[in-house]
Structures are given as C-alpha cells and as structure tokens.
Amino acid sequence: MSLHRYELGFLLIILNIYSLGLIDAVNVTASDSAANPLQAPSYQSHSSSAVYKPAVDSSYSINLLSSFPEDVEISEYCSEMLRLFGQRYVAYVNCLIPAARPVRVCQNCSPGYKSLSDVFLNISSDQMGPGNVSCRDSILRSDRLMLVFLLYGNLDTIWEKSNCKQCVTTDLKGPNNDTLYYLTLLNQTITCFEKYKEGNHTELCKSCTLPYKDLNDMYSGMEKNSTLCIDLEDSMNMTRKLWSKNFGCSYPHGETIPVIAVSSFMLFLPIIFYLSSFLHSEQKKRKLIHPKRAKSHNSLMNIQDKQS
Amino acid sequence: MANITKKVSWSSRGDESGAAGEETPLLNGSEQSRPLRQSLDYDNIENQLFLEEERRMSFVAFRCLEISRWVICGLIGFLTGLIACFIDIAVEQLAGLKYRLIKENIVKFTEAGGLSISLLLWVALNSFCVMWGSIIVAFIEPIAAGSGIPQIKCFLNGVKVPRVVRLKTLVVKVVGVIFSVVGGLAVGKEGPMIHSGAVLAAGVSQGRSTSLKKDFKIFEYFRRDTEKRDFVSAGAAAGVSAAFGAPVGGVLFSLEEGASFWNQMLTWRIFFASMISTFTLNFFLSIYHNKPGELSNPGLINFGRFESEAMEYNLYEIPLFIAMGAIGGGLGAFFNFLNYWLTIFRIRYVHRPCLQVMEAMLVAAVTATVAFIMIYFSTDCQPLGPDHTEEYPLQLFCADGEYNSMATAFFNTPERSVRSLFHNPTGTYNSLTLGLFTLTYFFLACWTYGLAVSAGVFIPSLLIGAAWGRLCGILLASTTSTASMWADPGKYALIGAAAQLGGIVRMTLSLTVIMVEATGNVTYGLPIMLVLMTAKIVGDYFQEGLYDLHIKLGSVPFLHWEAPATSHWLTAREVMSSPVTCLNRIEKVGTIVDTLSNTSTNHNGFPVVVQPAKLCGLILRSQLIVLLKHKVFVELARSRLTQRKLQLKDFRDAYPRFPPIQSIHVSQDERECMMDLTEFMNPTPYTVPQDTSLPRVFKLFRALGLRHLVVVDDDNRVVGLVTRKDLARYHVGKHGLEELHLAQT
C-alpha cells in the first residue's frame, strides 16, 4: 500500500487515466512500471513545445507541422507500427463490445489482446528497430497526452480486470483445459434446464441436481485456486440465478421444530441455573472494616455541631 | 443540614442484612486468610541504611541504573509485543479451526436436513473451550478474571491488589483469553493484553521470578514499590499499544489511569516501551503473514484505514455525531446498570468456583444458540462480492452465490465483525439485521462481562456501537433522496463504536487517541473527541463507568483525582484512626511480635516514638518482619561482634512477598531481647496537624503516593494515623457527602 502511494507521486502525469473511472488500474500500472514509460519527463515535452511554438497564423502552422526537420519527425518504421497498433486496437475493441453481454470476453477476444499487446510491446521496448530507431520515445513519450499509452492502458485494465489470463492457454490462443471442462459441464446443465423447463420445477430440481452440483463443485474448486475469469463467473452467476431464483431449487427451510426445541432448551438452562443458585447457594456476606476512630461515638454529633 | 454523613455499603441494603454481615464470619474459609488490600509504598524510606547505600554508590553506578531502566523498558515492550503476537496467532488458528469445522457441518446438514445437530456441535465446541478457560481462572487464579484493567488501575493508583502481577496470573490470563475468544463469547482480547503487559513489566523489572524460584541477580535495585510501579505503568502502556497499535494512546492511558506523579523522563521511557511493543508485534505478525519486514500493520485490533473519500465528514454532521454520543452514553449507562446488578448477584450467589465454571459454560452455550437462531431465521441474503472479506461465509438457505448477512456479524471472531461493520460497502447489511444484532449482542456482552473468564469489554462495546452506528448511517441515508450526502455508513459505525465504548468505560483522553490511532486518520480526532465527551457527560449523569463500578464492588480503597467536593469541613481528626499502636525506639521483641500478631491492628506502619509519645519515625510491618527474621537484637549484636550488618539488600530480597508473622519463630528467651529501630525506621515521616482538612490530606496522598500519614498534636505527639482506607470511604452521593464502609475481601 505504501509503495503504491509513493509511486503515485510520479504517476501524476498519467492520472487522467484514472479520472476515467478506472481507479483499480492504479495497481496494475504501478506493478507494470518496468514496461511503462513511467519517468516520462513531462517538463521536456513542455520545453520542446516551447521551441516549436505554433505560429500565430494557423494556416502557416499547418505548413510548419508538415515540414518538421527529419530528426524530430517520426520514422517510417514507427509510423508503420502506429498504424498496426491502430488496426489491432480497433479489431480488439470490435471484438469486445459484442462480447459484453453475456460475457464472452475471454473466450472470443483473447487472441485479439495477444496481437495488440505484441505490437505495444514492440513499440515500448527499447530495442532498436530497423534504421536504429526506437519508437518508444517518439510514440510514447513525446507529449503530455501520451495517447497511445493511454489507449493501451485502458484496454490493459479491462484485460486485467477480466482476469482472462486464468482461463486461456499461455499463448492466449484459446481456452485451457479447465475452462473447456467447465464449459462442457455448463452445457450439460443448461441442456438439462432446457429439457425440464416446461413442466413442474420440482422435477427439474430433482433431475438436474447432478449436473448442477458437478458444475457448482467444479466452480468452487476453481474459485479456491483462483483460476476463474469473468466469463466463467458470469455464466455461473446466471446459472445460479436460474437455479435458485427462477426454478427455486435452493434448500428448503428444513425442519424448524427440532432447532426451536434445542434452542429453547438451551435458553432455559440459564434460568434454571440462576434460580437454583439463588435458592440453594448460601449468600456470601462481607465483613465490613470498622475503623477505630477517636471519639467514634460522638463523631457524627461533632460534624453536626460544626455544621451548625 | 444538607450534609449528613450516612453509612452505606452495598451489602447493607436493607439494614438487617448489613448488620448480619457484620457479625457472621466469612463463609468462605479461604477468604479469611487472604491478606487485606494494602497500599504500595511509593514514599522512599530514607533511613540510615538507604543513606549509606547511596554514599557507597559511585556516579557510574547511577548512570548504569539509568541505562538499565531503558533496557528494561525495551524488554517490556518486546515481550509484550511477543505475547500479543502469540495471542493473536493462537486465536486466529484455533478460531479458524472451529469455524471451519462448524461451517462444514452446517453445509452438510443444510443439504441433508437436521441443522439442530450443527447447533449442538456449535454449542458443544463453545462450551468446551470456555470450560477450560473458566476452569483455569476459577480454580487457579481468580484475579485473572475479567479484563484486568480495573486491577491495573488500582495498582497504578497505589493499591496492592494481591497476586495481580504474578507470573501465574499472566499465564492464566493469556491462556484464558485465548480460550474465551475461541469459545465464541462476546469478549475481546485487548483488556487482558493490558494486564499482561503490566504483569510482564512487574516481572521483568525485578529480574527474578518468585513463582519459578529463579533469581537472575539483576535489577536488584528496582525491587521496590516505587520503581516497580513506574515499570508497571510502562507495561500497561505497552499492552495498550500492542492491543490497538496505538503507542501514544498507551502512554496517555498510563497517564490518565495511573500517574499521580509523573515526570518527563518516565513518560519518554514509557513511550519507548510502547513503540517497541507495537513494532515487535508488527514485525512478528509480518513474518506470520509471509510479508517479513512490512511494518505497517500494527495492533491486535486493526480497524483498517479510513481513508477513502466516502469517509470524509462535513460540518453539518457534527451535531449528528454529538447526538450519537449522547445515545452511546445512555446505552453505556444502561449497560453498566445491568452489569452492576448482575455482578452483585454473582458476588452473592455465584461465588463457588464450580458454579462459576458452569455459568461461563452456560453463557457460551447461550451465545452460540442465540447466534444460531439469528442466522437461521435471518432472510437477509447478500451476493458474495468478488473481493469478499468474510472468511467464513455461510450460505444456509440463501440462493447460491449469496451468503447470509447475519452470519458475517455472528459467525466470526468479534473483532473481524467490527472490521466488517466499519468497512463493508453500503448495502452489506440491512437495517433489520443490524437492529437485531445490536439488541442481542448488547445483552450477551453485558451478561458476559464479569464471568470468571479472562476477557475484555473493549471489543464487544465497539461491536455493539458499530452495529447501531451503522444502522444510524443507513437510516440517515434513507431519509434523504441524495444518499451521497451521507456517504458511507462505515463512518457512522466508527462514531457509534466510539460513543458506545466511551459510554461504557468513560475513558476520555486516552480513548480518543487510541481510536484516532487505530483508525489511522487524524481528521477523525475532533468528532471522536466530541462523541466521547458527550458520552461521558450523559453517562456520568446516570451511572459510573464500568471499571469504576467494579473497583467499587471490589471494595478497593481507590483514590480518585480529587477529594470529594464539599469535604473541607472534615479534618484529619475525624478522618484518622485512633488510637494508634506505637513502638518505642528501643522496643522489646516480645511487644513487637505481639503487636504484629494481633489481628486487630491491621495497620502496616507503626509510628516510632520516644517517651513521652513524641514521634521520631515510622517503621513498616514488612521491615519489622525482616528484622525479626534476621534476629537483629541488641543483645545478639553485643555478643556476636562479627555478625554481618543488615543491609538494604536484605529487605529487597524479601520483597515483595514478606512472610507472615506466624511463620517466624521467636523463642521465649528472644522475646526478652530488645530491638533498636533507629537505623531502620523512616526518621522523617510526613505528618499533619489535627486540623488539616480532608482535601489537603487527600492531596498529599494522591500526589506523594503516601501510605501512612501521622497526625500529631502541638507537641509532636502521635494522636492518629491516616491511611488510604480512611480517605477512600468518603464520596459524594445523592445526599451530599457519604461515608462508605469498605468490605473485607
């Protein structure tokens, strides 16, 4: 916590990310600090903007922009990278949005994230590309806004929050074995639900208990190992809701009489205890200390004399 | 006249029973042999031996003493932290085991039916734990019962409560508190922690343990009441600091409860001990939690940090806080009132150890039963959040993926419940749950305090307060459409907790600082202070604080900060005991032995006089006993010239358990010998003339920590003796000044 707070100091530059409401991302970005251009010197970008101050005349300034000298202009390679980043970004977002409800983010879009993060890694790595250029400084750190970093940060937060890493294979190509097994169980349960949905719900409760229980146990096991991602959580939530709310299959309120009997017995015990100890136990008396007083008999009178 | 001196005592409510009590001897045989509560000797006895020793001591030796004081304080802090750590881990492990066991059982029987079996299991486990906790307290060391704070308060006030700082007490206290918390009683482990710190301090500073018959031959200089008390106050501070992670609060606790004399150097040392204690606890807990070296998780009870924006308060909320303080004060007074009558009942009827054990077990059983019924019939189901902090969520009859919200309050160790009441997001509890919880827990906690188990009242009070405080927060939010205005109910839970605790224990300064430190947010200082002030004012209107009530019931001659008001017309002549047994400067051994053996002379100090009755010194019972033991008789000294001269060390070695007079054998011949007290008596005892007013005498006692004050006439002749007991019996009641008879315990 304290570490985190400390880093907030120089995270100030990218604080605008969090003002978008992604407060939880602080942790993520902070821990990834190695990959981030954390120390992006904002003052530098200020000073450089001071050098290339836009001219008063706006039409002239367009001309100026297009004719930046070679060494500050973005290289061919980097602009290519930027274009690629844009393409994959759009593709990923396009994948994400339809998968929002019901949540299929991990199953459908993990490869998209993989390709996006590959490009970003390329951009942010300090290894020189062809032509001995590193795109990190030119794309990520040259200005106050740091748009690419911000954009990627958003999606990265979504990825981290969805916890998809737990459900897909290490190369992010597709669901891993646990997930696949879970999905088969889920399918079984849903099919069972479909089958009995029409008739009496009690029958459904009876017949589908087995697949539902398997599914539930599997889920609980995965919860314990914390190998859950949002897809599974969401599907389980929906299934549970169906099971308990729609079909009303949770445990009945059981036999209440024995519980009441046992507890009223328990509650009666103290009454018996106190009554019996009141009636049978001998009362303990205390011996008072009697002070030896000078003129102890008339001391009361003494006091009263003084008063009057 | 308005001021009527009445004789009141708790056992003479109905005068006839009081009269009977005076005649009948104590029923409990063991009681009679118990020593009376005595005062501690804070006044340095500047007799010739002392002067000689001081002359012999070099400058370096004095520096060494100063350094060893620091070393002792460091040790006290370190060991207190260790003990706190041990208690914490033991409770966590054992309680975890218990709750897991019950949870599995409940899950099993929810499905199969037959939850009454789970109830029985819960009841059995609770009663079993509490039984052991209660057995060791009731049969081995009854003084370890309760929170221990009243006893430490008395000790720091200058009353020697027998056996309160023994090693055995410490062991019983620590083991007992683990059992009672694990046993699911409505108790906390913070009060016992304070007691434990104090015992440790008393033990460490003496460099030996009489119980273990082990003398390390170190710190011999500190074997005196004065030094011991300084260390005990450091220990109590270290205990508070370990319990709440509040080092400054600990120092202020010692200041508020104990100190009648206080110097800056001592404060600084006490602060050192508190700091060491918090950070020892921190360090070891960080290792336990697998984050070694992370030192920012102080305290047994960690309220968590109140830092989010929702926790901010606004000016318009201050009146609300004050109103809550008033509620807390009222509820606290009600709590104390109930507990007072319960305690009287217990003293009268439930005094046998086996009955006490049974009572404790019954309370444990009922606590479990009530909790179970509450959980069983609660229909408040809440969804299980992604980052749920509940360690043992119970589903019971809730829909899958939801848990029973009542169970988070009941099915948990009390301090975890406090934390979840403070920090769980809005909507975790509905108001019915909280209301029922407050109601039941209030009575359970009230019933529990005073049982023969080692247990504190801090956490239950906080829990009750947090529950109704949160309820207030929820109700406030529901009255306005803009719920954001009242923000987080956790804030109100904190204020409620402070109000309730303040209403029950009536601590002021130290409690404010403790709460502020435990929440880690200084901006809460003002509201907490206002709340505690209101709670104290409102509560004091109805009833005394819980600790003061128990001190009063224990018949402890406790001296409050000030003499009772309107007592200036009382003079030393009326207050003192008279006539006083005096000894001559050169006294016959037989007379001394007879005086000491005489049960009617219950004083522990004897004025030494030269004829005719002129005061020349004061000698203590303990000194006389040491003298008799070493047979320091004039005749023997003459015959055996080689005999070693008695030194101050001999008195220290006998400290603090001086043998009773019966165990010292004095032969018929020796009775005829003479004893010269000149060397050993305190040649300059404090004296007052007969017309000194009571407040003046009181001030002397309170400020100097006196034990005996000799009252003399114009010719320096002894006419009486004032002791703590003579002063403590006056107090201001409903009809002006009243005289209270202290009972013998």
Automatic annotation (TrEMBL), chain A:
Pfam families for this protein: OSTMP1
Origin species: Poecilia latipinna (sailfin molly)
Keywords: Membrane, Signal, Transmembrane, Transmembrane helix
Transmembrane domains' residue ranges: 257-279
InterPro entries registered for this protein in UniProt: Osteopetrosis-assoc_TM_1
Taxonomy, superkingdom: Eukaryota
Protein name: Osteoclastosis associated transmembrane protein 1
Keyword Metal-binding: no
Signal peptide: 1-25
GO CC terms: cytosol
Keyword Magnesium: no
TrEMBL record, chain B:
Membrane topology: Multi-pass membrane protein
Alphabetically ordered keywords of this record: CBS domain, Chloride, Ion transport, Membrane, Repeat, Transmembrane, Transmembrane helix, Transport
Gene3D superfamilies with a match to the protein in the record: CBS-domain, Clc chloride channel
Bilayer-spanning residue ranges: 70-91, 119-140, 170-188, 231-254, 266-288, 318-342, 354-377, 441-471, 492-516, 522-542
Superkingdom to which the source organism belongs: Eukaryota
Residue span of region Disordered: 1-34
SMART domains registered for this protein in UniProt: CBS (SM00116)
Entry GO terms, CC: lysosomal membrane
Chain intervals with Polar residues compositional bias: 1-12
Entries under InterPro entries matching the protein: CBS_dom, CBS_dom_sf, CIC-7, Cl-channel/antiporter, Cl-channel_core, ClC
Keyword Transmembrane assigned: yes
Location in or out of the cell: Membrane
PROSITE patterns per record: CBS
Residue ranges of every copy of the CBS domain listed in the record: 681-739
GO MF annotation, one: chloride:proton antiporter activity
Predominant subcellular localization, coarse grouping: membrane
PANTHER family to which the protein is assigned, alphabetical: CHLORIDE CHANNEL PROTEIN CLC FAMILY MEMBER (PTHR11689), H(+)_CL(-) EXCHANGE TRANSPORTER 7 (PTHR11689:SF136)
Protein name listed in UniProt: Chloride channel protein
Organism, scientific name: Poecilia latipinna (sailfin molly)
